[in-house]
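YM 10:42: Pirin sequence, as discussed on the call
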Amino acid sequence: MSNLEPEPREAVCGAEGTGGPTFQMLAGREVVLGGPRGMRVTRTLPSRGRRMVGAWCFVDAYGPELAEMRVPPHPHTGLQTVSWLVEGEVLHRDSVGSEQLIKPGQLNLMTSGRGIGHSEESAYGRIHGAQLWVALPGTDRDVAPHFEHHAALPNLTWPDGAEVTVIMGELAGLTSPATTYTPLVAAEIILTSSLSLPLHPAFEYALLALSGAAEIEGGSLTPGPLLYLGSGHDELSIRALEPARLLLLGGEPFQEEIVMWWNFVGRSHEDIVTFRENWEAGHGFGEVTDFDGPRLHAPALPGTTLRPRGRER
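YM 10:58: structure's back
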């Protein structure tokens, strides 16, 4: 999915520490994709309070609602896009020749590396899910672009109906087949009562409620904000206040500064300028075929130099 804002905000992330366990609620802001009648999403990363959780640098949640997703061909660099659905179906096309329909419980993972273009679209109907981005480390940010679809992912179920699906990384002894470039985890948690999961104390973690309500660390979480838990946890205890579906995101604190603007992740202002010029010139990103419509043009760059601001604002 693209950042379709006509005046995208600069997001430059640094390598400051996490400060141990915490309970920080990050409010989301509503963004409309594709004009006034487009699909609404709630964006919680990057936020005013925090830029990243591990290598996770972008979190959009959408639905459940009746809507049509239509995101024309657009570019990405230096990141992975992670598509996760609860309801609906979305068709992905990209410039390395992939065409894949994603359904609930399946993973579409696109690694942009040095540059890729892609589009996403759905039929009008109920749609509910999340779009996440992972920043690639400097050693891998120029890898060849590629796409993965994982129709089946490892999961655990409990007698009371609780279920954990490991989307990326490792959790509770289960390892996802999805390719990762830094130590991280993403998992969907469904529960109606209580659940405890082992965590990695060196990871920082955050939780997003996709539906329902849950109690974590004595506080409640409902759809909308992202709950940042910091690092230093060896266990996560969750109690459902009503049937709940949550996304757990975590990873080692990302030890590099990155510049994130529009759909690009780079390391400097000059990187972003080059990415934008190349996309506009039709160079280095390939072509997305079979999409009925024109590709997106990059917004104008801001009048100031894109500069580092650190992991926390």
